[in-house]
Design goal:
Elements (H helix, E strand, L loop, with lengths): L2 E5 L1 H6 L1 H13 L4 E5 L2 H12 L5 H22 L3 E2 L13 E4 L8 H12 L3 E5 L5 E2 L11 E2 L1 E2 L1 H7 L14 H9 L3 E5 L3 H7 L7 E3 L1
Parallel strand pairs: 1-2, 1-5, 2-4, 3-4, 5-9, 8-10
Antiparallel strand pairs: 6-7, 9-10
Helix pairs in contact: 3-4, 5-7
Length: 211
């Protein structure tokens, strides 16, 4: 069994110091981790660049996927971990930490994380976000937001409505949430790397638990 981490691209680029701390902490824990990296701003910039050359929507998704793998490969070299580009539905982890990115057009890296959690028998996905957790409203648009500490997947669905397009940034992808609900996989949304250790030790976390 491995523990899956969906490492958001925004976290990766906005919190470089925390990203370094994250991998150093993972190496200290007696668990196997599969880390799936998002594309972040580099993916969105490349997608906008590609639109100017009239790429199809499927091709734009592929651009984003390739950016996630650049991020995963760079992190694997920086922190001396394993890297793979295998199908997350069949992925196996043999090393302490394995990094990968997206896989199919139309799938977010959250969806890849959900399928990988099923494949590796993980019972939790840590969704490392630039936000502390899930809020009742978009914190980028409203100031009077409330952090939701424990919610069900139905509530999460209600907060993540809308059409998915290449480069879109979700709290946690609705398709991924459905996979997690079906397979009884909890999702921890947080920007505090210590929440990983807290959750594994059955302590109160600062972020949001979805189950």
């Amino acid at each position: 069994m491995s523990i899956v981490i969906s490492l958001g691209g925004s976290f990766l680029f906005d919190k470089k110091r925390d990203t370094s701390l994250l991998f150093n902490e993972l190496k200290k824990l007696n668990e196997k981790f599969l880390v799936i990296t998002g594309g972040g701003p580099i993916a969105r910039e490349y997608i906008d660049f590609s639109k100017d050359f009239n790429l199809s929507e499927k091709e734009l998704h592929t651009v984003g996927i390739k950016c996630t793998h650049i991020n995963a490969w760079v992190m694997s070299k920086a922190f001396k971990t394993d890297y793979t580009d295998k199908d997350p539905r069949k992925i196996k982890t043999n090393k302490r930490i394995t990094l990968t990115g997206g896989y199919l057009p139309g799938w977010t890296t959250d969806t890849c994380a959900a399928y990988a959690a099923v494949s590796t028998h993980s019972k939790v996905i840590f969704n490392m976000s630039k936000e502390m957790g899930v809020y009742d409203k978009d914190p980028r648009k409203f100031k009077d937001v409330k952090l939701l500490k424990n919610i069900g997947f139905e509530k999460l669905y209600a907060l993540t409505k809308g059409k998915r397009v290449p480069g879109m940034n979700f709290i946690f992808d609705p398709l991924a949430a459905k996979i997690c609900k079906k397979n009884n996989i909890a999702v921890v949304v947080t920007n505090d790397i210590e929440d990983i250790k807290r959750y594994l030790e059955n302590k109160e976390i600062k972020g949001t638990i979805v189950r």
